[in-house]
């Protein structure tokens, strides 16, 4: 027997649709940065303090949801956030430990090898202690090739690394990011439509247990998570500024963060703007909409510190 979906007002439908898109953005949020770190063979671009503070915010968010007795789906998403944060932290620590063990060996090898005059750039990569952080990140692939067995392998691997890097310039990067965002929006919209048609989703009631100890505790933890979310990006912004580089960061990661926060906050406001409901959700609104300002700052840094396309530089 086919289930008849409950009738919805325009605001209820908009709230449900925006909430589903937001959840989809959060689900895929960390994937681009995890891939970027794996491709680079390091996680130097990510501020560990940024990830740790964000992790604390997600833990506070989960604890607040459990204390306030939120629906199981919200709790499950909060658990997923904590697991995803843990995976990113583990990846960053793994690359940091692995590369720190390799650095002394590479330094000893570079000091004993006689530079080939026909390959000055390669020698400079190994011997220049004043090289920028960008050159250190880009040289990781060539260093591994040198250690594996010779300059020829190093040059081949270095060429492949350049090809990978150049795939993310200009129009190709924008096309990839726009396609990814559109795909995530479609998944979120389709997921909500199916959930509504099958009766798995229905509008959340406006009534709440405001004033009880559980609600008060959940509200306090909500403000703790909001402070963590607002403060987490500051170390990353400072790191980008001090290094004058955003190389190694995934732009799509921050795009999804911005869209996830925007749709989450808009979904709450679409559901209701009544005073009690607004005050109950205020910490989560601050945590979502407030961080958008910091995401915009990071977008500006991406623009200011952008690496120019080598092919365009050659033409000019």
UniProtKB/TrEMBL annotation:
TM region(s), chain numbering: 13-35, 47-67, 73-95, 178-195, 215-234, 246-264, 284-306
Keywords recorded for this protein, A-Z: Membrane, Transmembrane, Transmembrane helix
Compartments where located: Membrane
GO biological process annotation, one example: vacuolar transmembrane transport
A Gene Ontology molecular function term of the record: basic amino acid transmembrane transporter activity
Classification via InterPro entries: LAAT-1, PQ-loop_rpt
GO cellular component: lytic vacuole membrane
Annotated Gene3D superfamilies: 1.20.1280.290
Top-rank lineage group of the source organism: Eukaryota
Segments for region (Disordered): 105-153
Reaction equations catalysed: L-histidine(out) + L-arginine(in) = L-histidine(in) + L-arginine(out)
Keyword Transmembrane: yes
Membrane topology recorded in Swiss-Prot or TrEMBL: Multi-pass membrane protein
SMART domains: CTNS
Pfam families, per the entry: PQ-loop
Main localisation: membrane
Family to which the UniProt record says this protein belongs: Belongs to the laat-1 family.
Name under which the protein is recorded: Vacuolar membrane PQ loop repeat protein
Provenance organism: Penicillium bovifimosum
């Amino acid at each position: 027997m086919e289930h008849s979906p409950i009738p919805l007002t325009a605001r209820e439908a908009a709230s449900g649709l925006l909430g589903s898109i937001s959840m989809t953005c959060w689900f895929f949020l960390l994937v681009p940065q995890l891939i970027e770190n794996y491709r680079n063979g390091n996680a130097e671009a990510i501020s560990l303090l940024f990830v740790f503070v964000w992790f604390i915010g997600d833990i506070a968010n989960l604890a607040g949801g459990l204390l306030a007795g939120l629906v199981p789906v919200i709790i499950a998403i909060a658990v997923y956030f904590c697991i995803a944060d843990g995976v990113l932290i583990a990846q960053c620590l793994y690359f940091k430990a692995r590369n720190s063990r390799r650095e002394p060996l590479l330094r000893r090898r570079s000091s004993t090898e006689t530079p080939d005059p026909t390959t000055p750039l390669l020698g400079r990569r190994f011997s220049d202690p004043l090289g920028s952080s960008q050159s250190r990140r880009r040289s990781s692939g060539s260093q591994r090739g040198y250690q594996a067995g010779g300059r020829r392998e190093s040059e081949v691997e270095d060429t492949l690394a350049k090809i990978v890097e150049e795939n993310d310039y200009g129009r190709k990067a924008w096309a990839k990011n726009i396609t990814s965002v559109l795909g995530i929006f479609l998944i979120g919209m389709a997921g909500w439509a199916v959930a509504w048609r099958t009766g798995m989703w229905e509008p959340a009631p406006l009534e709440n247990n405001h004033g009880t100890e559980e609600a008060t505790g959940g509200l306090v933890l909500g403000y703790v998570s909001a402070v963590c979310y607002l403060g987490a990006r500051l170390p990353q912004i400072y790191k980008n500024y001090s290094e004058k580089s955003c190389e190694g960061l995934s732009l799509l990661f921050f795009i999804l963060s911005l869209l996830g926060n925007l749709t989450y906050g808009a979904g709450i406001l679409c559901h209701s703007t009544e005073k009690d409901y607004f005050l109950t959700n205020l910490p989560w609104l601050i945590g979502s909409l407030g961080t958008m300002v910091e995401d915009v700052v990071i977008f500006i840094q991406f623009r200011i510190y952008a690496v120019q396309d080598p092919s365009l530089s050659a033409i000019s």
